[in-house]
């Protein structure tokens, strides 16, 4: 109970103290001319930047490439390129490894499981537990 009273008194004190604090002064208003001067100063400082030269170089390159035709202009050209890339990927060694893995899985599928029923599994667990406890 004492802690509650102490917390209430401290909270009240903090609220009263913050209510009596003066409000912060408003930021000074800038005129249009002052804003323009600030923008001009920032623009002049940024003109010597290397990024502006890189941007101009990139714009010139884009302008030069504007008239060149596209490499694959139609859907059929794009589809032919995809088909060619797909055909070269089929001869990869990974495809042979995948086929070998599939063949192995098919051959193992016909073999019976070691413990086909739940009773067999429980019996095997009991035998292992007894042998560990006895040894």
Report on the structure:
The chain has helices at 2-20, 32-46, 50-65, 75-90, 93-109, 118-134. It has a domain at 81-109. It is mainly alpha-helical.
Number of strands: 0
| Broad structural category | mainly alpha
Radius of gyration: 40 Å
Helix content: over 70%
Note the beta-strand portion: under 5%
Task: Summarize this entry quickly.
By secondary structure, this protein is mainly alpha-helical. It has helices at 2-20, 32-46, 50-65, 75-90, 93-109, 118-134. The chain is flat.
Keywords:
flat; mainly alpha; 135 residues
What are the SSEs and their pairings?
Blueprint (H helix, E strand, L loop, with lengths): L1 H19 L11 H15 L3 H16 L9 H16 L2 H17 L8 H17 L1
